[in-house]
Write a sequence for this structure.
């Protein structure tokens, strides 16, 4: 590729043609601040924080969208540049409510950090008439507080470009401009799929998950409640980020130790639920193949995807696996099998899940998710909320010992842990389905074709003489592409995995936030997924059907995958929802 | 909590819808089709209610939020029809200094609508206008063709009652 030579702050730099000043500066070790810019999806040059001086240009330019030229001379830290950034920050602050002390993002707010870095002295320098917005708390999973919104449009971009939902956008103009839904409809009444991708890209506290940590603390403090916690596969490789550990650090042991010290009666693992999901889903797949059932079967683990399907592609609802998600299966089996085994009334069990996901908050309240007559799961917390609980409890996370999950619902396999990454559910299902269909042990358990962070992946496997066509996609915009292809007869598959968030749960809407300075230059989803695949490779058992605790559940309780009892407890149903 | 915008009950006819679908079909393949489609749709319906915006969103393959964003960005587009009685309050300089602002505020209060909106029963629509050339009567408002001058906020109730 052709290189372009330029100078940044007097130092020569050589970068590929087509680079922006922002990218070139990064190569030269200079972090130019941004608020609105998100690589590939929001390159709009709107916030004016990335201003730099270019020799010969008549005014400052926005580094995020300005391409480099041969011989260009860029200055990123002159008084003129620094003053412009500071003034622009003060202008941004003029419509911001500045209630940092009580803000959920205080400490990891990108606006707050920049104000500090650029020495903003008077946060009310440009005080004037401001709009006041009511907080939108209508959705099950999140708040929108437009009084904290800086109109960067990162949420709009994530919703439209990554997720293909586009339920939010800038409404009105000028001083009245604000982000909202069409006709100002409260979010909870729209086709929002609850994925939370808007929250993780928000630079401020304008968007946040509905914090339910107090409900959990109250349950733990209640002597009549037996409080069980389950942790989703991906949480163990992201939680560390909230404690300044490198991206992709496996903190499973410390996470378990922290949960135990927070006072949960049992620390279990959603991975058990994932293994159970595979037993049921692989069986459902095999049954559909054998009996001419609806194909492709499409995975149903991701509640954001399920809601998306219900709103936008109801014609595929029969394709969805009837399996509950691992979170819900875990809750259901806890309040039936485990309750019975331990002699506890299911009504006294309080099941908490720690999820990478905000849509899980929506999922717990779905219809047909209460196997024991009480909700399978009582509260779904995000990774961020767990981090908050740990900090509030004063637990020094990095110094905690490594501990192990409790038995029996803490036992799991490598197949379950990779559920946290795109392709993981497919690979786990194949490990079990292939052995079921062929009756032979797999020589190699790695299905590497479905791994990786590509938005859409395809693979064909020969399974006992039958050609099994598989497709995997993540990010709902990619799901749209794939489903349209299937609908138009341009592609056909036997089995399809969809995860709502790009890269899967590792990049879920409930995961720790990372600022744009990291998000734009580091492949978060790849680093986090790598840690999961490493865990899988290191596990002694890597196929769900080899999990001894799972075997026991079937022997003593469920009989066999797909049994009547399994259907009553572990399966669910879907409803078509309005497109608008 | 946020509240959804209330609009006047939709009274579109099949003929209007047929026309709208033709407009969409004519522009569908164009880049930047949304603006001309919205402009022509407003010619057909007189305004752009949610029912019309949904047909446009569906027809052009864009989201309703995007359509609404464009509609509310440009002042040429209206979410509300004109009412049976169209109230215009002059907020030009002379009327404004004579207190038209307070008259306007009183109207928004009484009708419970903002500028550019229409009451849900379709009876009154309210808008601010600039000078209507009756500065001697400032502050001035009109209800359809009827002119009311030298107003105070206290006059509003009585004027409205004439049309109720």
């Amino acid at each position: 590729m052709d290189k372009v030579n330029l100078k940044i702050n007097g130092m020569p730099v050589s970068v590929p043609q087509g680079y922006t000043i922002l990218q070139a500066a990064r190569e030269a070790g200079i972090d130019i601040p941004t608020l609105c810019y998100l690589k590939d999806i929001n390159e709009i040059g709107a916030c004016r924080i990335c201003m730099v001086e270019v020799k010969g240009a008549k005014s400052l330019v926005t580094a995020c969208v300005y391409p480099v030229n041969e011989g260009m001379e860029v200055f990123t830290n002159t008084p003129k540049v620094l003053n412009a950034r500071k003034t622009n920050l003060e202008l941004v602050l003029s419509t911001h409510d500045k209630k940092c002390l009580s803000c959920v993002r205080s400490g990891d707010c990108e606006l707050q950090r920049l104000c500090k870095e650029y020495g903003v002295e008077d946060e009310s320098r440009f005080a004037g008439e401001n709009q006041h917005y009511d907080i939108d708390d209508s959705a099950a999973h999140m708040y929108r507080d437009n009084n904290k919104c800086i109109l960067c449009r990162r949420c709009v971009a994530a919703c439209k470009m990554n997720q293909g939902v586009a339920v939010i956008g800038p409404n009105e103009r000028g001083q009245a401009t604000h982000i909202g839904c069409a006709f100002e409809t409260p979010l909870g009444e729209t086709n929002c799929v609850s994925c939370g991708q808007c929250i993780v890209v928000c630079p401020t506290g304008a968007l946040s998950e509905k914090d339910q940590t107090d409900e959990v603390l109250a349950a733990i403090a209640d002597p009549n409640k037996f409080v069980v916690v389950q942790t989703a596969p991906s949480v163990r490789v992201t939680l560390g980020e909230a404690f300044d550990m490198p991206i992709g650090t496996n903190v499973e042991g410390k996470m378990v130790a922290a949960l135990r010290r927070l006072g949960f009666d049992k620390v279990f693992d959603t991975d058990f639920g994932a293994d159970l999901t595979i037993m049921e889903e692989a069986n459902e797949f095999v049954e559909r193949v054998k009996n001419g059932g609806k194909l492709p079967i499409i995975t149903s683990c991701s509640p954001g995807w399920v809601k998306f399907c219900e709103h936008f592609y109801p014609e595929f609802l029969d394709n969805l696996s009837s399996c509950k998600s691992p979170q819900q299966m875990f809750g259901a089996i806890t309040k039936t099998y485990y309750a019975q085994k331990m002699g506890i009334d299911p009504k006294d069990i309080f099941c908490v899940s720690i999820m990478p996901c905000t849509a899980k908050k929506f999922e717990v309240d779905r219809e047909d998710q209460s196997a024991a007559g009480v909700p399978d799961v009582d509260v779904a917390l995000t990774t961020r909320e767990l981090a908050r609980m740990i900090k509030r409890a004063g637990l020094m996370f990095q110094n905690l010992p490594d501990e192990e999950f409790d038995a029996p619902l803490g036992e799991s396999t490598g197949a379950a842990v990779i559920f946290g990454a795109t392709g993981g559910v497919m690979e786990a299902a194949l490990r079990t389905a292939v052995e079921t269909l062929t009756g032979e042990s797999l020589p190699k358990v790695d299905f590497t074709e479905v791994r990786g962070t590509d938005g859409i992946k395809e693979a064909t496997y020969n399974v006992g003489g039958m050609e099994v066509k598989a497709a995997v996609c993540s990010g709902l915009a990619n799901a749209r592409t794939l489903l349209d292809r299937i609908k138009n007869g341009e592609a056909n598959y036997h089995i399809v995995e969809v995860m709502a968030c790009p890269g899967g749960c590792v990049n879920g809407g409930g995961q720790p936030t990372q600022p744009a300075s990291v998000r734009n230059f580091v492949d978060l989803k790849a680093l986090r997924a790598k840690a999961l695949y490493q865990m899988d490779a290191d596990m002694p058992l890597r196929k769900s059907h080899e999990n001894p605790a799972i075997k026991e559940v079937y022997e003593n309780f469920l009989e066999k995958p797909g049994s009547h009892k399994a259907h009553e407890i572990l399966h669910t149903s879907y409803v078509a929802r309005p497109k608008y | 909590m946020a509240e959804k915008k209330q609009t006047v009950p939709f009274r579109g006819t099949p003929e209007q819808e047929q026309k709208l679908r033709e407009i969409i079909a004519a522009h569908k393949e164009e880049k930047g089709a949304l603006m001309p489609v919205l402009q022509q749709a407003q010619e057909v319906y007189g305004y752009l209610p949610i029912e019309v915006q949904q047909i446009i969103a569906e027809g052009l393959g864009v989201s309703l939020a995007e359509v609404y964003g464009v509609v509310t960005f440009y002042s040429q587009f209206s979410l509300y029809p004109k009412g049976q009685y169209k109230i215009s309050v002059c907020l030009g300089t002379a009327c404004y200094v004579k207190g038209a602002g307070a008259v306007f505020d009183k109207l928004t209060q009484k009708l419970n609508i903002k500028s550019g909106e229409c009451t849900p029963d379709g009876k009154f629509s309210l808008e601010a206008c600039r000078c209507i050339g009756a500065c001697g009567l400032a502050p001035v408002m009109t209800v359809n063709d009827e002119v009311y001058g030298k107003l105070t906020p206290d006059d509003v109730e009585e004027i409205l009652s004439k049309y109720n």
